[in-house]
Amino acid sequence: MYGTLYGLGVGPGDPSLLTLKARAILEQVPVVAVPVSQRGEESLALQVVRQYLQPEQKTLNLFMPMSRDQAYLERSWDAAATELQEHLAGGSDIAFLTLGDSSLYSTYSYLVQRLQKMEPGIKIITVPGVTSFAAAAAGLNLPLATGDEPLAIIPALKDPATLKEYLPLFPNLVLMKVARHYDAIVEVLQEAGVAEKSVLASRCGQPGESFKRDLVAGKGQKQDYLSLIIVKGGGQP
Amino acid sequence: MYGTLYGLGVGPGDPSLLTLKARAILEQVPVVAVPVSQRGEESLALQVVRQYLQPEQKTLNLFMPMSRDQAYLERSWDAAATELQEHLAGGSDIAFLTLGDSSLYSTYSYLVQRLQKMEPGIKIITVPGVTSFAAAAAGLNLPLATGDEPLAIIPALKDPATLKEYLPLFPNLVLMKVARHYDAIVEVLQEAGVAEKSVLASRCGQPGESFKRDLVAGKGQKQDYLSLIIVKGGGQP
Predict the structure, then answer these.
(1) Which tens digit of pLDDT belongs to each residue from B37-56?
(2) Contacts for A64 with CB less than 8 Å, ≥ 6 apart
(3) Which of B9, B134, B150 sits opposite A154 (nearest CB)?
(4) Going by C-beta distance under 8 Å and a sequence separation of 6 or more, which residues neighbour residue B71?
(5) pLDDT in tens, A170-205
(6) I need a surface site. Which of A28, A193, B40, B81 has the fewest CB within 10 A?
(7) pLDDT at A41 over 80
(8) Measured between CA atoms, how close is A58 to chain B, in angstroms?
(9) pLDDT at B237 over 80
């Protein structure tokens, strides 16, 4: 009598980039679950779908903090998975929301893994969504990759120097969450001679969306947390 | 008085994975353009959106062959771009359809590049879509990547041995269009000890969709043209 868990990728931020399937599910489920990284904060994913929800639908805020303490993270994910399980055990269907795609850099993956262990027969339906980098490329009318070219997605460089290993292998790269090491990343791109072919995209599909082609001019400035760089001109195997 | 060109990613095949934005545009445009690789063939992208179209909407089949002859390809893209330009010059809005995402491995990119040169002021709006590999991961309830892990998208290996260069750098890889070199690819994955952690997905989001966890058992068999492998367990930088 368990309810079904739906994992919905709601796209990068523009509510019109939701899929028809995700909207249809959102209109049916009694409970919408969202990850919140600070208690009391409103989830960005929830804002995206707000217009498709009815007042009688319940929101379940799951506390999933950002931290570098792996043990603390795992305890938080365990607690969130247990909270989901309790609601599902009551027979309620739940839609868990993820910005972008549900299978890419989402806390949803940690919950699925735990729920499958806790209740092996549990019904889980994942619905894919549009990624932030696909929206960035679309906003620029720029290909992410064409023909036989590979594409590297690098979520968050701990050490910008590792970028030097990827550049010779990939004509196209997407560097996500670049704000923290922005200057160092741009320096590596300058050394490789590809800074001028690359583009900075911030807040794709959201209010305040911006695209900047002059990466060097942005050095020394604070970049938005939701910023990515599409790199062109890297080496080809 | 030029019409607007819309580049719509229609998703992997399941019509419910279209975005709300793409459907709204489809319901407005007088002309829907689709690439066809063989004259007379019905476009798969057109089949996906067929239910959202009205009889009065015109279909424009653009001949965009598959070939290894680069000069022939470029002549075909030039001719298709000219055909689009003529319709746009008549004031007609056109939606060009791409399976998956419009910025990733789409002939749309070649047309945009040409139209921007032919008519620099032309209005082009690209709408991103759900990729086949996001749909594959969703169908398997499997993450494409989590945390700080990079992800490599490799569209079509000319030489399966080059996979050995990518594997040590990427814990997660998506190998697209694997049918041609299937056996050789699986052998590289076996040597690297990751074949058992990888999954073969065919015809994602389309009739006949299948997922196979035993890649080795598929050796010696003909694989569907629309097959990809999600590789897990590669090295991490």
Answers:
(1) 887 677 889 999 999 999 99
(2) A35, A36, A37, A76, A77, A80, A107
(3) B150
(4) none
(5) 999 999 999 999 999 999 999 999 999 999 999 988
(6) B40
(7) no
(8) 24
(9) no
Interchain CB distance below 8 Å, B130 and A14: no
- Res B27: pLDDT: 96
Question: CB-CB: which of A21, A104, A166 is closest to B169?
Answer: A166
Q: What is the ipTM of this complex?
A: 0.95
Q: What distance in Å separates residue B103's CA from the closest CA in chain A?
A: 4
Percent of chain A with pLDDT over 90: 84
CB–CB contact A137 B130 (8 Å): no
Q: Answer whether B156 sits within 8 Å of A144, measured CB to CB.
A: no
Structure confidence at residue B68 (pLDDT):
87
B153: Cβ contacts below 8 Å, ≥ 6 apart:
A145, A150, A151, A152, A153, B104, B133, B173, B174, B176
Is pLDDT at A237 greater than 70 in this prediction? no
Chains A–B, number of C-beta pairs less than 8 Å apart: 179
Question: Which of A200-209, B13-22, B144-153 is predicted least confidently?
Answer: A200-209
CA distance B90 to chain A (A): 22
| Beta-carbon separation of B156 and A138 below 8 A | no
Chain A residues touching B104 at Cβ < 8 A: 134, 137, 143-145, 151
* Under 8 Å between Cβ of B153 and B176: yes
The first and second tokens of residue A93, run together, are 């269907």
Q: Which residues of A touch B127 (CB under 8 A)?
A: 17, 138
Mean pLDDT of A232-236: 85
Q: Are A92 and A65 in contact (CB under 8 A)?
A: no
Task: Measure in Å the smallest separation between the Cα of A133 and chain B Cα atoms.
Answer: 9
What is the Cα–Cα distance from A65 to A85, expressed in whole angstroms?
19
Residues of A in contact with B103 (CB under 8 A): 134, 137-138, 142-144
Which long-range CB contacts under 8 A does A203-209 form with residues at least 24 apart?
A: A203/A13, A203/A227, A204/A12, A204/A13, A204/A132, A204/A133, A204/A135, A204/A136, A204/A139, A204/A228, A205/A11, A205/A12, A205/A13, A205/A14, A205/A17, A205/A132, A205/A135, A205/A139, A206/A12, A206/A13, A206/A14, A206/A44, A209/A139
What is the pLDDT of chain A when averaged over all its residues?
94
| Distance from C-alpha of B113 to C-alpha of B7, rounded to nearest angstrom | 12
